[in-house]
UniProtKB/TrEMBL annotation:
<keyword id="KW-0808">Transferase</keyword>
<keyword id="KW-1003">Cell membrane</keyword>
<comment type="pathway">
    <text>Carotenoid biosynthesis; staphyloxanthin biosynthesis; staphyloxanthin from farnesyl diphosphate: step 4/5.</text>
</comment>
<keyword id="KW-0328">Glycosyltransferase</keyword>
<keyword id="KW-0472">Membrane</keyword>
<protein>
    <recommendedName>
        <fullName>4,4'-diaponeurosporenoate glycosyltransferase</fullName>
    </recommendedName>
</protein>
<comment type="function">
    <text>Catalyzes the glycosylation of 4,4'-diaponeurosporenoate, i.e. the esterification of glucose at the C1'' position with the carboxyl group of 4,4'-diaponeurosporenic acid, to form glycosyl-4,4'-diaponeurosporenoate. This is a step in the biosynthesis of staphyloxanthin, an orange pigment present in most staphylococci strains.</text>
</comment>
<dbReference type="InterPro" id="IPR001173">
    <property type="entry name" value="Glyco_trans_2-like"/>
</dbReference>
<dbReference type="GO" id="GO:0016757">
    <property type="term" value="F:glycosyltransferase activity"/>
</dbReference>
<comment type="similarity">
    <text>Belongs to the glycosyltransferase 2 family. CrtQ subfamily.</text>
</comment>
<dbReference type="GO" id="GO:0005886">
    <property type="term" value="C:plasma membrane"/>
</dbReference>
<feature type="domain" description="Glycosyltransferase 2-like">
    <location>
        <begin position="8"/>
        <end position="132"/>
    </location>
</feature>
<dbReference type="Pfam" id="PF00535">
    <property type="entry name" value="Glycos_transf_2"/>
</dbReference>
<dbReference type="InterPro" id="IPR029044">
    <property type="entry name" value="Nucleotide-diphossugar_trans"/>
</dbReference>
Length: 285
């Protein structure tokens, strides 16, 4: 008799041949093959990502799709599995298997939404980038947010709050708006996800532009899902500003945020975006 699935992991992928094997190796190191259903949805890949996935030998449900976009890949992956709770994992993000199990167990035990802890790898990044993430790490609310980790999980109850994922720039921002901040559980005591941040300010500004464009898009098309945290963030910046030692880093943070907002208003969205500055073979973003 087969075991009851703990849940599922959906992995949308676009041209991830350089990193997808490492992602899957990390995920399957510590989970039983019949414990969690993993669906990899390749979206218009032309770099052999599908062959790399098959070559890992891991028991993955592989979908080979045309160019349907990231959200289209998520929709296809969700249509291929009914197992809940569910983790949504970026194809270039290493989620250790035991951490995935812990997140699924938390979701099955009452957590509405959950993710593992996150650490930022800013080795090789310029000082303004390091300053920006130092400020982020010091903000209590951002440490608890669901988005920005390359992985998030939704319980059956949370997933039932909406139908299919809408056509939005950032699926993680949408998911974060489905739940309240106090419904998010950051699972303690497990290995964190390592987020490799942009190497330079130009790349960081582009990343921020996507985030702010995603927020604006949600406000315009899904106003019931958009609850901007600008006021809360501003309060936390002011609290940090009471200590003069933070002033140089706060100055860098504010300049980068403003630049990201300006670029986000000018740029048009819809494409699958990634930070290439921190992305080389064997290095996930």
């Amino acid at each position: 008799m087969s075991r009851e699935l703990r849940g599922s992991v959906v992995v949308p992928a676009w041209n991830e041949a350089a990193v997808i094997a490492r992602t899957l190796d990390a995920l399957f190191d510590g989970i039983e093959p019949d414990d969690v259903e993993v669906v990899v949805a390749c979206n218009g890949c032309d770099d052999g990502t599908e062959d790399v996935v098959r070559g890992t030998g891991h028991p993955v449900h592989l979908l080979e799709l045309g160019p349907v976009g990231k959200v289209g890949a998520i929709r296809a992956a969700e249509a291929a599995t009914t197992a809940l709770p569910r983790i949504y994992l970026d194809a270039d993000t290493e989620l250790p298997g035991p951490s995935a199990v812990a997140v699924l167990d938390a979701l099955a035990s009452g957590a509405v939404a959950a993710r593992p802890p996150v650490t930022h790898d800013d080795a090789g990044s310029t000082w303004p980038v390091r300053a920006f993430y130092a400020v982020r790490r010091a903000m209590p609310s951002l440490r608890r947010e669901l988005f920005g980790a390359g992985v998030y999980g939704l319980s059956a109850e949370a997933r039932g709050r909406f139908g299919t994922f809408p056509d939005v720039v950032a699926d993680d921002l949408f998911a974060a708006r489905v739940v309240e901040l106090d419904e998010v559980t950051v699972v303690d005591g497990v290995a964190p996800v390592v987020v490799r941040v942009p190497r330079d300010t130009r790349s960081l500004v582009r990343t921020l532009a996507r985030v702010y464009r995603g927020n604006a898009e949600l406000a315009a098309t899904h106003s019931d899902r958009a609850h901007p945290s600008t006021t809360r963030t501003a309060r936390e910046v002011l609290v940090l500003g009471r200590d003069p030692r933070w002033w140089p880093r706060l100055a860098a943070y504010v300049v980068l945020v403003v630049a990201g907002r300006v670029l986000g208003r000018r740029a048009s969205g819809g494409s699958w975006e990634r930070d290439h500055s921190a992305r080389v073979e064997g290095v996930a973003t």
